[in-house]
Amino acid sequence: MSTTRDEPTEPIPVNAGLLRRLAAATYDTLLVIALFVIPTLGVMALRGGKPVPPGSGLLQILLIITAGLFFIGFWVYGGQTLGMRAWRLRIEDHAGNALTIRHGLVRFLTSIPSIAVFGLGILWLLFDPDKCTLPDRMSGTRVIVLPKDRKNQ
Q1: Each residue's pLDDT tens digit, 18-33
Q2: Residue from 40, 102, 97 nearest 110 by CA
Q3: 7: number of CA atoms within 13 Å, CB side?
Q4: Would 24 disulfide with which of 3, 11, 83, 151, CB 3.0-4.6 Å?
Q5: Rounded to an integer, what distance in angstroms lies between the CA atom of residue 39 and that of residue 68?
Q6: CB-neighbour burial class of residue 20 (10 A; exposed 0-12, middle 13-18, buried 19+)
Q7: 120-131 pLDDT, tens digit each
Q8: What predicted TM-score, i.e. pTM, was given to this entire model?
Q9: Closest CA to 148 of 8, 1, 11
């Protein structure tokens, strides 16, 4: 009689659903809003302390760059924003590898219209067989749920 040894196997990654992604996005939105203070103060300093007029093109560009640096930086260097870490999510390419800057840039740039058009590019995941959003599809990435830490169970 031969015996087989049970080898521990790594669980198959599960793509994240809408509610978990929205929860992580809420955390990240609060952090990005806090970061928006930095470029706003910079523009105010350039204006000699005067308030920034509504619709200031310079400030809008700086805010987009700030948000881009936040998201792309966390996605490429670690695969998780702080909100994603809190909700046990990680972003990777379809082969399970870390994102490149190109992945991150495409994902960020496609996220803007996906959210701006009533969130339709995000709601896409409700109908996608792989639970991918439009930015996931366009950038070749996916957001997976990480398994619970076995030590904490």
Answers
A1: 999 999 999 999 999 9
A2: 102
A3: 3
A4: 83
A5: 13
A6: middle
A7: 999 999 999 999
A8: 0.87
A9: 11
